[in-house]
Design a protein that fits this description.
The protein is an alpha+beta fold. The chain has two domains: 1-85, no CATH class; 88-157, no CATH class. It has four helices and two strands; from the N terminus they run αββααα. The longest helix has 36 residues, at 121-156. The two termini are 27 Å apart.
């Protein structure tokens, strides 16, 4: 794996600092209808008409942007955590990184296939929301596990 596309090592901490509050905000928004008042905005839609053909006003669409901000924060945070360099980035780390990425793509599509076959309506939508983040979460977990297992093997020698 080419390491020129990796972020500097210090970005991992920045990623965790972005990811954790964003994940908490997203979960609070999804399950407790939490919203940040400054992220609730009014959009004016097209003018609407009533039988006479004259414009009688504008429809106002109130939109809560809390979930969008949370999702972007989770994505940016996970990308920074997942693709930051290690302190020592060598060929073995690159191979572990590639294996973890391949494993996470397989896991993501297995979850997706099971969801397609077994879930419908709102349950399917909820799985799809979480499935957006599955690749990065599984990648980070698998990569960290491989690094840990590799360091334990090297210490045993």
């Amino acid at each position: 794996m080419k390491t020129k596309w990796l972020f500097p090592h210090r970005f991992r901490l920045v990623g965790w600092v972005i990811f954790l509050p964003s994940a908490i905000l997203g979960l609070a928004n999804m399950y407790a209808d939490f919203k940040l008042n400054w992220l609730v905005v009014n959009f004016l839609n097209e003018p609407f008409t009533i039988n006479s053909g004259q414009s009688t006003g504008h429809l106002v669409n109130i939109q809560n942007l809390t979930d969008e901000i949370a999702a972007i924060g989770v994505i940016v945070g996970l990308l920074l955590v997942a693709f930051s360099r290690e302190k020592v980035e060598d060929e073995m780390i690159g191979q572990l990184r590639l294996e973890a990425l391949q494993w996470s793509v397989y896991a993501n599509y297995i979850v997706l296939a099971i969801a397609i076959l077994t879930l419908y309506d709102t349950a399917f939508f909820n799985v799809m929301v979480y499935n957006m983040f599955t690749v990065l979460l599984v990648f980070i977990s698998r990569f960290r596990w491989l690094l840990y297992r590799n360091s334990q093997t090297l210490l045993a020698l």
